[in-house]
């Protein structure tokens, strides 16, 4: 049992823990906590259904026999910068991550929304999105490093997903025209590359959601999406959980 004041960052607080001072507790044998961080995909927005982290927890229990608790901290509209700030400055979030054996992250899509608005008004080309992708790469890497640091050396699996589309897709996207469909595909490729590249040397695993939803890019994901064309439906959430579970359960210190 870890008892001493062992801190991720900084010294011991006298009156109460700061986010930087939260420390992980020793794992409980036979039990795992899975915490999901990120945006509206994580939160389960647009779907009156169980979010993917709930399915993943059940799949993990079936595969390992462990008692698995799911903790969903998804925030609709959250950006990568906001998530990093939360992991740095919010004590409650940091404590819950510190006590998590598996952390799943889906973040970055909302970072591109302002550039999409500029593109729609004719004030932005693909170069604008490349600038955002550079920022996402840096922020995602810092998020993974922060999770690893908060865990304080305890074995942890950090699974970071990319996206099938950072904007709308399927039938809904088709109704928005060929230009929208083309730019969303190009930006999604930029975003997915940035997310995975940001995880190099962090010990986190980049989990691809593009291929499960769309194959080589020619697949139609409409049947996996909610009516808004933006979020997964119940089938889509289950697919995400199964894709995450297919990575196995490799916890590393």
Walk me through this protein's architecture.
The protein is of the alpha/beta class. It is built from 10 helices and 5 strands; from the N terminus they run βααβααβααβααβαα. It has helices spanning 40-43, 52-64, 80-89, 91-98, 113-120, 126-150, 170-175, 178-198, 210-214, 234-245; strands spanning 31-38, 67-72, 102-106, 157-161, 205-207. A 5-stranded parallel beta sheet has the order 2-1-3-4-5, with helices on both faces. The longest helix has 25 residues, at 126-150. The radius of gyration is 18 Å and the shape is globular. The two termini are 16 Å apart.
CATH first level? Alpha Beta
* CATH fold type: Rossmann fold
What do we call the CATH homologous superfamily? SGNH hydrolase
Radius of gyration: 18 Å
Instruction: Report, as a whole number of angstroms, the end-to-end distance.
Output: 16 Å
Number of domains: 1
User: Largest sheet at a glance?
Assistant: 5 strands, parallel
Instruction: Estimate the mean pLDDT confidence.
Output: 91
Under the CATH scheme, the architecture is: 3-Layer(aba) Sandwich
Report the principal-axis shape: globular
Strand content of the residues, in percent? 5-15%
Judged by helices, strands and strand pairing, the structural class is alpha/beta
Number of E-state strands: 5
What is the tally of helical segments? 10
Helical content (DSSP H or I, runs of 4+):
40-55%
As residue ranges, the low-confidence spans are 1-17
Across the major sheet, the strand order is 2-1-3-4-5
**SSE topology string:** EHHEHHEHHEHHEHH
Protein name: Lysophospholipase L1-like esterase
GO molecular function: phosphatidylcholine lysophospholipase activity
Domain SGNH hydrolase-type esterase: 36-237
InterPro entries: Ester_Hydrolysis_Enzymes, SGNH_hydro, SGNH_hydro_sf
């Amino acid at each position: 049992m870890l008892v001493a004041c062992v801190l991720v960052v900084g010294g011991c607080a006298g009156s109460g823990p700061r986010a930087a001072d939260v420390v992980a507790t020793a794992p409980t044998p036979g039990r795992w906590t899975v915490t999901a961080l990120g945006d509206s995909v994580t939160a389960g927005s647009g779907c009156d259904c169980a979010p993917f982290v709930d399915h993943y927890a059940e799949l993990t229990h079936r595969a390992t026999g462990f008692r698995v608790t799911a903790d969903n901290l998804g925030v609709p509209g959250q950006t990568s910068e906001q998530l990093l700030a939360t992991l740095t400055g919010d004590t409650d979030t940091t404590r819950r991550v510190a006590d998590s054996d598996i952390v799943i992250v889906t973040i970055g899509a909302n970072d591109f929304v302002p550039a999409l608005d500029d593109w729609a008004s004719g004030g932005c080309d693909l170069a604008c999105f490349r600038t955002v992708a550079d920022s996402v790469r840096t922020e995602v890497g810092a998020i993974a490093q922060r999770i690893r640091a908060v865990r304080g050396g305890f074995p942890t699996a950090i699974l970071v997903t990319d996206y099938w589309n950072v904007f709308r897709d399927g039938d809904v996207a088709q109704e928005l025209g060929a230009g929208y469909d083309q730019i969303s595909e190009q930006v999604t490729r930029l975003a997915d590359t940035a997310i995975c590249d940001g995880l190099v040397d962090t010990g986190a695993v980049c989990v691809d959601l593009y291929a499960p939803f769309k194959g080589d890019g020619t697949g139609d994901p409409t049947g996996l999406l909610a009516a808004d064309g933006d979020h997964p439906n119940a089938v889509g959430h289950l697919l995400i959980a199964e894709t995450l579970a297919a990575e196995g359960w490799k916890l590393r210190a």
